[in-house]
Design brief:
By secondary structure, this protein is mainly alpha-helical. It has a single domain, classed as P1 Nuclease, CATH 1.10.575.10. Helices cover 59% and strands 4% of the residues. The chain is built from twelve helices and three strands, in the order αααααααββααααβα. The chain has a three-stranded mixed beta sheet with strand order 2-1-3. The chain is globular. The structure holds adenine (ADE) and zinc ion (2 copies).
């Protein structure tokens, strides 16, 4: 190859690579976040319901559920880009995972809770904290948001899903939910939000870190169940839809639990 054609070849190879890693960064797709917030809103006590309504100036949590995914792409909120996930590389214990200096989903949730609890916080800062909290509680329960840093949380982990090459992160953001059920977010909530008081109590036990670690255990199984290049279809959906449902339920109930505790 001449020097010029070699430079061209490198340029095209690099462009193709950049093109393939289209980073699907930011959480469940819209449906997952809406379902999480809808379930949460059904479990708010009267005080929390009133406080949320006031802070969101009449709009619902569902209205704001997905806002962060767009806001993080604006200069104003660029500092929140890493707040949607926490990376834990293969073979590393949850507690041993190096911390992202710019913050991760767990620290982001803890911070927003502190802002909401603090009597000295302004209305505007509480309002922003709530908009962030309702979103990040969804992200905390999306298994690929606890994925390996080496593959950008599954964004570079390519499998074949119903005949198309896709990344595992995107499959978990949207495809697993949409392949499982063609439901609206309220229909999802109707079907998933079926628990006894005892089950709800059990789900809401623990700390944010314990919830994150629980997600990470699922993450490990998700990677194992979908090696790179594997072909996933109906049996994959049958196996994993119930897990996705359970994660949405946990996210919703725990979000309500946090808000009920704060207000
Ligand atoms: N989105 C973008 N980068 C990511 C990462 N490293 N882990 C999870 N989600 C991501
Ligand atoms: Zn997100
Ligand atoms: Zn995502």
């Amino acid at each position: 190859m001449t020097r010029i054609s070699c430079i061209f070849a490198k340029f095209f190879a690099l462009s193709a690579l950049i093109f393939c890693v289209n980073v699907d960064a930011l959480g469940w797709g819209q449906k997952g976040h809406d379902v999480t917030c809808e379930i949460a809103s059904r479990h708010l006590n009267a005080k929390a319901r009133k406080a949320v309504k006031k802070l969101l100036e009449g709009k619902s949590m569902i209205y704001w559920s997905n806002w962060m995914d767009n806001a993080s792409h604006t200069p104003e909120y660029a500092y929140t880009k890493t707040w949607h996930y926490k990376n834990i590389d293969e073979g590393i214990e949850y507690a041993e995972a190096p911390l992202e200096p710019k913050g991760d989903v767990v620290t982001a949730i803890e911070q927003q809770i502190e802002v909401l609890k603090d009597r000295k916080s302004s209305f505007q800062s509480k309002r922003l904290a709530l908009k962030m909290l309702v979103h990040f509680m969804g992200d905390l329960h999306q298994p690929m948001h606890m994925g390996h840093k080496t593959d950008l949380g599954g964004n570079k982990w390519i499998v074949n899903y119903f005949g198309k090459d896709k990344n595992l992160h995107g499959i978990w953001d949207t495809d697993v939910l949409e392949s499982g059920h063609k439901w609206s977010y309220t229909e999802w909530a109707d079907q998933v939000n079926r628990t006894t008081r005892k089950e709800r109590k059990h789900i809401c036990e623990g700390t944010i870190h314990q919830w994150a670690e629980e997600t990470y255990q699922i993450t490990t199984q998700v990677y194992e169940g979908a090696p790179q290049g594997s072909k996933l279809s109906y049996d994959y959906v049958a196996q994993w839809t119930p897990v996705a449902e359970q994660q949405l339920l946990r996210g919703g109930l725990r979000l309500a639990y946090i808000l009920n505790s704060i207000f």
